């Protein structure tokens, strides 16, 4: 019995030492981690909506209404130039091949897609992971939000068609679904 | 909750995102305990048991303790401790409750602590933000996928033992190449979901 | 065994990947590029050396009955530290290694060295063992990553080697390529070792 107590105490000692070390280093790094993450998101938003000078998240009531209405929408930011809203940056998460694919879509107030960026994914390297390439992402640029975007496997012949990545149709669909959700959100809730 | 979604999770965990052949989790037991179909099956069953149980417990711990108190950074350490103690408990329980089952699974149980499929599964469940039901379905799927891969692999290796393999490739190299070919076959499931 | 010999042991003779076949999960999963392989190797080395040092320092204080849980806690602590620091200072690597950073905990290589070497040796020797095994692990991972990246994407460390005309064999960076490449590399390693032994 005494031995069990002793063993338990030693184990407790080791785990509490570990917890203290981790607590301290968490306190030391959490600020940097948040800053790095925030900066990465800010940079990504700027990339998809270059015209905007700074971004603010929507006012709480409207944002909550949007987020509760569609669980695939993660963030909605309005991009400002001076006092005026020039467009929106909408982050969505849609299921791809290896998990959710997170995409930020930039839409100008005139209803044009100004850019998209795949910010987080677990797709297969060499296939689905190519969704982060500029070549793929630039296809969405300047598309009109009034019409649904579709994925084709050959050279696109109509407007609002995207050529799928080689060997990664599921990923291409996931990205396009994300952009379409952002597009509909803009048409139904934001442009009015 | 719609069953379609759960079914997709299950099938994708077994075939498309097979834990061993496409996510590379649980490779150590996959290569180590796959010389005979019988032992491979035993390992598969033991892993199924621990995986399902541990992902339920880690789910509860994450959502009732770590998440509430803002201690997510202790996730790794908490999960691995849960798994290690669970394996011990299961071992003791089976030993008392069913000596026959213990004889069959006993040797594999201690190995499961360092089976990264178990910890990997717990972390993936949290990352994918599955609810409890989805977690359970995903765990069962992952475990079946693991068992399927290891039993099939053992079947091939049993025959491989009789084959004439170049000397330098005997043992692990040819086993790895075999696993590669199996993995190609599983790639064929990619379009399934 | 001298300290230098301990260090050299892990590099070739008892190479964790080619001879002992330990830590296979990260070996196969993160070696799609040379950079990721190297980063994983270095992260593992750091954890291995730190855990070896602490286990060796505490080797007389930890009762043998609870040594395994104690080692696991020590290893998990260092893994979490690496996780935090990579998240804060190397976010791109953190993203591409993903799930496999926390999974360093269950790399059998680390628990194996703690149990079979560090718990029985002085801190200095434990460090040199950790460094040797870690570097042995890292170079093997980098080699595997380079081979797969070269064949599967036509580049090494992100630098294109073959130019535009090269049609990469995408299979090499897909899961099957990991098994095939490692199987063939282990085969070559065996063949070279035997040839050396025959010549000596």
UniProtKB/TrEMBL annotation, chain A:
UniProt topology in membrane: Single-pass membrane protein
Localization, UniProt: Cell membrane
EC number from the UniProt entry: 7.-.-.-
Main location: membrane
Name of the top EC class for this enzyme: translocase
Record bears the keyword Electron transport: yes
Alphabetized UniProt keyword annotations: Cell membrane, Electron transport, Flavoprotein, FMN, Membrane, Phosphoprotein, Translocase, Transmembrane, Transmembrane helix, Transport
Residue(s) carrying FMN phosphoryl threonine: 169
GO cellular component terms given for this protein: plasma membrane
InterPro entries membership: FMN-bd (IPR007329), Ion_transpt_RnfG/RsxG (IPR010209)
Example GO BP: electron transport chain
Subunit structure: The complex is composed of six subunits: RnfA, RnfB, RnfC, RnfD, RnfE and RnfG.
Residue intervals of the FMN-binding domain: 96-186
Gene that produces this protein: rnfG
Gene Ontology molecular functions: electron transfer activity; FMN binding
Cofactor: FMN
Recorded family membership: Belongs to the RnfG family.
Protein name: Ion-translocating oxidoreductase complex subunit G
Function recorded in the entry: Part of a membrane-bound complex that couples electron transfer with translocation of ions across the membrane.
From TrEMBL, chain B:
Keyword Transmembrane: yes
UniProt keyword terms in alphabetical order: Cell membrane, Electron transport, Membrane, Translocase, Transmembrane, Transmembrane helix, Transport
Protein name, entry field: Ion-translocating oxidoreductase complex subunit A
Family note: Belongs to the NqrDE/RnfAE family.
Enzyme Commission numbers on file: 7.-.-.-
Domain of life: Bacteria
Enzyme class, UniProt record, top EC level: translocase
GO biological process: electron transport chain
GO cellular component terms attached to this protein's record: endomembrane system; plasma membrane
UniProt key word Cell inner membrane: no
Stored NCBIfam families: PRK05151.1, rnfA
Oligomeric and partner information: The complex is composed of six subunits: RnfA, RnfB, RnfC, RnfD, RnfE and RnfG.
Organism: Thermohalobacter berrensis
Role this protein plays: Part of a membrane-bound complex that couples electron transfer with translocation of ions across the membrane.
Primary location recorded for the protein, binned into one broad class: membrane
Membrane topology: Multi-pass membrane protein
InterPro entries, alphabetized: Ion_transpt_RnfA/RsxA, NqrDE/RnfAE, NqrDE/RnfAE_oxidrdctase
Localization: Cell membrane; Endomembrane system
Ranges that cross the membrane: 6-28, 40-61, 73-94, 101-124, 136-156, 168-192
TrEMBL record, chain C:
GO cellular component annotations of the record: endomembrane system; plasma membrane
One Pfam family hit: Rnf-Nqr
Bilayer topology annotation: Multi-pass membrane protein
Keywords associated with the record: Cell membrane, Electron transport, Membrane, Translocase, Transmembrane, Transmembrane helix, Transport
Segments crossing the lipid bilayer: 39-58, 70-91, 97-114, 135-163, 169-192
Keyword hit for S-adenosyl-L-methionine: no
Keyword Transmembrane applies: yes
Enzyme class: translocase
Alphabetical list of InterPro entries matching this protein: NqrDE/RnfAE, RnfE
Cell compartment(s), UniProt: Cell membrane; Endomembrane system
GO process terms (BP): electron transport chain
Annotated EC: 7.-.-.-
Similarity field: Belongs to the NqrDE/RnfAE family.
Function: Part of a membrane-bound complex that couples electron transfer with translocation of ions across the membrane.
PANTHER family: ELECTRON TRANSPORT COMPLEX PROTEIN RNFE, ION-TRANSLOCATING OXIDOREDUCTASE COMPLEX SUBUNIT E
Assembly with partners or alone: The complex is composed of six subunits: RnfA, RnfB, RnfC, RnfD, RnfE and RnfG.
Protein name: Ion-translocating oxidoreductase complex subunit E
Taxonomic lineage from the root: Bacteria, Bacillati, Bacillota, Tissierellia, Tissierellales
């Amino acid at each position: 019995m005494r031995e069990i107590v002793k063993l338990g105490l030693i184990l407790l000692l080791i785990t509490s030492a570990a917890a203290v070390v981790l607590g301290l280093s968490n306190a030391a790094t959490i600020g940097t981690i948040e800053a790095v993450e925030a900066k990465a998101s800010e940079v990504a938003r700027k990339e998809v909506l270059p015209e905007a000078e700074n971004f603010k998240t929507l006012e709480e009531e409207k944002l909550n209404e949007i987020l509760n209405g569609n669980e695939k929408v993660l963030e909605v930011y309005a991009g400002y130039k001076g006092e005026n809203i020039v467009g929106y940056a909408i982050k969505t998460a849609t299921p791809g091949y290896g998990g959710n694919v997170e995409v930020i879509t930039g839409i100008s107030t005139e209803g044009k897609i100004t850019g998209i960026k795949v910010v987080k994914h677990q797709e297969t390297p060499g296939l689905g992971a190519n969704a982060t390439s500029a070549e793929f992402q630039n296809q969405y640029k300047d598309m009109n939000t009034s019409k649904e975007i579709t994925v084709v496997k050959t050279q696109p012949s109509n407007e609002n068609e995207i050529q799928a990545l080689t060997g990664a149709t599921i990923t291409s669909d996931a990205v396009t679904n994300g952009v379409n959700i952002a597009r509909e959100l803009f048409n139904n809730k934001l442009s009015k | 909750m719609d069953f379609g979604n759960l079914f997709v999770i299950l099938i994708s965990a077994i075939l498309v995102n097979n834990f061993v052949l496409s996510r590379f989790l649980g490779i150590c037991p996959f290569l180590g305990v796959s010389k005979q179909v019988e032992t491979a099956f035993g390992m598969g069953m033991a892993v199924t048991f621990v995986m399902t149980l541990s992902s339920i417990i880690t789910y509860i711990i994450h959502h009732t303790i770590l998440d509430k108190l803002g201690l997510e950074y202790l996730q790794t350490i908490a999960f691995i401790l849960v798994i290690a103690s669970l394996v011990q408990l299961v071992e003791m329980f089976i030993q008392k409750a069913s000596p026959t089952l213990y004889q069959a699974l006993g040797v594999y149980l201690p190995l499961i602590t360092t089976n990264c499929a178990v910890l990997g599964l717990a972390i993936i469940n949290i990352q994918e933000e599955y609810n409890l039901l989805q977690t359970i379905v995903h765990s069962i799927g992952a475990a079946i996928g693991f068992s399927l891969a290891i039993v099939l692999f053992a079947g091939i290796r049993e025959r491989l033992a009789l084959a004439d393999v170049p000397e330098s490739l005997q043992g692990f190299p040819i086993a790895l190449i075999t696993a590669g070919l199996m993995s190609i076959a599983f790639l064929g499931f990619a379009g399934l979901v | 065994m001298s300290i230098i010999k301990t260090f050299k042991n892990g590099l070739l003779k008892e190479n964790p990947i080619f001879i002992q076949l330990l830590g296979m999960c990260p070996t196969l999963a993160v070696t799609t590029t040379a950079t990721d392989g190297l980063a994983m190797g270095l992260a593992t080395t750091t954890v291995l050396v730190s855990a070896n040092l602490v286990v060796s320092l505490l080797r007389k204080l930890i009762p043998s009955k609870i040594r395994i849980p104690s080692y696991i806690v020590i290893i998990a602590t260092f893994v979490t530290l690496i996780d935090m620091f990579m998240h804060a200072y190397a976010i791109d690597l953190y993203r591409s290694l993903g799930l496999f950073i926390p999974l360093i905990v269950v790399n059998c290589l680390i628990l194996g060295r703690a149990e079979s070497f560090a718990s029985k040796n002085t801190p200095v020797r434990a460090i040199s063992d950790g460094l040797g095994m870690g570097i042995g692990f890292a170079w093997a991972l980098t080699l595997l990553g380079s081979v797969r990246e070269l064949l599967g994407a036509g580049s090494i460390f992100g630098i294109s080697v073959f130019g535009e005309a090269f049609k990469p064999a995408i299979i090499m960076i897909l899961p099957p390529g990991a098994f095939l490449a490692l199987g063939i590399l282990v085969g070559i390693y065996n063949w070279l070792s035997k040839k050396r032994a025959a010549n000596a």
